[in-house]
From TrEMBL:
Catalytic activity: Cleavage of a beta-linked Asp residue from the N-terminus of a polypeptide
Family matches, as SUPFAM superfamilies: N-terminal nucleophile aminohydrolases (Ntn hydrolases) (SSF56235)
Gene Ontology MF term list: beta-aspartyl-peptidase activity; hydrolase activity, acting on carbon-nitrogen (but not peptide) bonds, in linear amides
Catalytic site positions: T227
Entry's EC annotation: 3.4.19.5
Origin: domain of life: Eukaryota
Enzymatic class: hydrolase
Protein name as annotated: beta-aspartyl-peptidase
Length: 379
């Protein structure tokens, strides 16, 4: 039989060991706030969305345009909220939220997508559920599927489809066979995007004619780089993430000595595949850590696996979802990448950090039903 004094000694040893570890963790900022208390606050079903990150300077931002974007973000949030309120699944909620933005010409997804260098709209999307087997569906190089996010969801849920990723004409044939809405490519055309396409071609021509010149980003671009996305946790604690885009290609800045890569301009090379449909780069979901959707310089999200890095920080470093998202975005900034992420954990804790001048974003919780929408840092 173990003596009382022996048990006391063991308890004292464990207390000192735990105290020591806690001090180290606090010093290194690896404490996960959701695990640091015995009963973490559960906010319940929660939805967070983004409509792209980019160059948006507040003093130059037209008030009318701001109202239009905030209204569209609110409509997206409400669409997903209604599903969560009725006890629906997180995958249905994120699909509904993203479809609203795909159908809205303000965003670079679905109708209103940017053009490739040859004047085509090429769309892509992905969706994922955070259950242990990580079900996912993705597509790319679409020209006739009205809602790429619905195709991604169809691929994920189809028991007869053993693939995660379909692209091009075969993906479109699959969508048609499944009864999804097919449109003429002209449906995605908007005057605003076509004007940006032509202006982009002219800027690229000027840069090509003067390779030592410096091509600067616009001071105001209410149509930012990147994507639209949504992440939700439902009443069952299941997390789902969804991301959709018209895809954008790289812009190069030239100087006398070297060239540096910057993403986020229309007129991408035909056939370019971005981070949006790539699981772990643009979309990720894991019930035990968090769900994440990214927007910004796609090539950086691909090379550094930004969205999965957020979940990895939660899992392996013990960071809470907010710190993990902030740190992943900051690491991307250090290597020249611009953009942001949205994330939510199983407790409904939300993160929406970005390193660009602005990001269309928002969240809503079933607990209060109030849509919160933002564009700039000080809101």
């Amino acid at each position: 039989m173990v003596s009382v004094s022996c048990i006391a000694a063991i308890v004292d040893f464990l207390d000192k060991k735990l105290s020591s570890r806690t001090k180290i963790n606090k010093k290194m900022k690896f404490i996960d706030e959701t695990k640091s208390v015995q009963n973490p606050i559960n906010h319940g079903p929660t939805l967070v969305i983004h409509g792209g990150a980019g160059v948006m300077i507040r003093k130059n931002y037209p008030l009318k345009e701001k109202r239009e974007y905030l209204k569209a973000l609110e409509e997206s949030l409400i669409a997903g909220y209604k599903i969560l309120l009725d006890g629906g699944s997180s995958i249905d909620a994120v699909e509904a939220a993203v479809r609203i933005m795909e159908d809205c010409p303000l965003f670079n997804a679905g109708k209103g997508s940017v053009f490739s260098i040859s004047g085509k709209n090429e769309l892509e999307a992905s969706i994922m559920i955070g259950t242990p087997l990580h079900p996912a569906g993705a597509n790319t190089l679409l020209r006739t599927v009205k809602n790429p996010i619905t195709l991604a969801k169809t691929i994920l849920l189809d028991p007869e489809c053993r693939h995660v990723f379909l692209g091009g004409s075969e993906a479109e044939k699959y969508a048609k066979d499944k009864g999804l809405e097919i449109v003429d490519p002209g449906y995605f055309w908007t005057e605003k995007r076509w004007r940006q396409h032509m202006e982009g071609l002219e800027r690229q021509k000027l840069t090509s004619d003067s390779p030592n010149s410096l091509l600067l980003k616009d001071e105001f671009d209410a149509s930012p780089k990147g994507t639209v996305g949504a992440v939700a946790v439902d009443k069952y604690g299941i997390i789902a993430s969804a991301t959709s885009t018209g895809t954008e290609g790289p812009l190069y800045r030239f100087s006398l000595c070297s060239s540096a890569h910057y993403g986020g301009l229309n007129n991408k090379k035909d056939g370019r595949i971005g981070d949006t449909p790539l699981i772990g780069c643009g979309t990720w979901a894991d019930n035990e850590t968090c769900g994440v959707s990214g927007t910004g310089d796609g090539e950086f999200f691909i090379r550094f696996g930004i969205v999965q890095d957020v979940a990895a920080r939660v899992k392996y470093l013990g960071e809470n979802v907010a710190d993990a998202a902030i740190n992943a975005v900051e690491e991307m900034r250090k290597v020249g990448g611009e953009g942001g992420v949205i994330a939510v954990d199983k407790y409904g804790n939300v993160a929406m950090p970005y390193n660009s001048l602005g990001m269309y974003r928002g969240y809503i919780r079933v607990s209060d039903g109030i849509p919160h929408t933002f564009i700039f840092n000080d809101e």
